Amino acid sequence: MQSQKEEQVKAKTKIEPEAEEKPEAAVEIIDFKDRYLRTMAEFENYRKRTNAEKADWIRHATKELALHICDVLDNFERALLQANAEDLKTPFIEGMILIEKQLATALEKEGIKKIEALGREFDPEYHEALAHIPSDYEENIVAAIIQNGYTMHDKVIRPVRVAVSNGNKMNTQED
User: Fold this and answer.
1) Looking at the structure, do residues 70 and 142 belong to the same domain, yes or no?
2) Do 89 and 70 belong together in one domain?
3) CB 129 within 8 A of CB 96
4) Could you read off the pLDDT of 75-134 as tens digits, one per residue?
5) Same domain assignment for residues 79 and 155
6) Which residue, 108, 117, 132, 147, is most buried by CB atoms nearer than 10 A?
7) Higher model confidence: residue 35 or residue 7?
């Protein structure tokens, strides 16, 4: 019985001698092989592209949540700027400072970083100018930060809103 099955398999897979002699059959075989290889290459490219898109989606799926948390971090910073030197020594304010640092560290672990801008040259890729103001800085240097900006995995998720120096010195009147 084994031999009968083997013969049937051999008969099905064996190329008939007449097909080898027919050039149309050889061309058709080459065409099918070419189609097969192209289809496999297309599928491999599709697989790589979908994997990359999936990884990118996962990495940036939390962008909106991150922006809300960045707003909270900004509010911590604003609140702490209102404290005077004596207040900074109270346990409550010390606790608030620790919470702000912990929140900033948690964001950094997820690839979210605050964009440093004050005193740096204006860069429209990272900064959004809302005003030109007189300051002690040279022209086109960020003189004030209006709202902090953040990057996530080196992509800007919110630009820094800034006031840029117009090169004119601030008028300081002494009475």
Assistant:
1) yes
2) yes
3) no
4) 988 888 888 878 788 898 889 999 999 999 999 998 899 999 999 999 999 999 999 999
5) yes
6) 117
7) 35
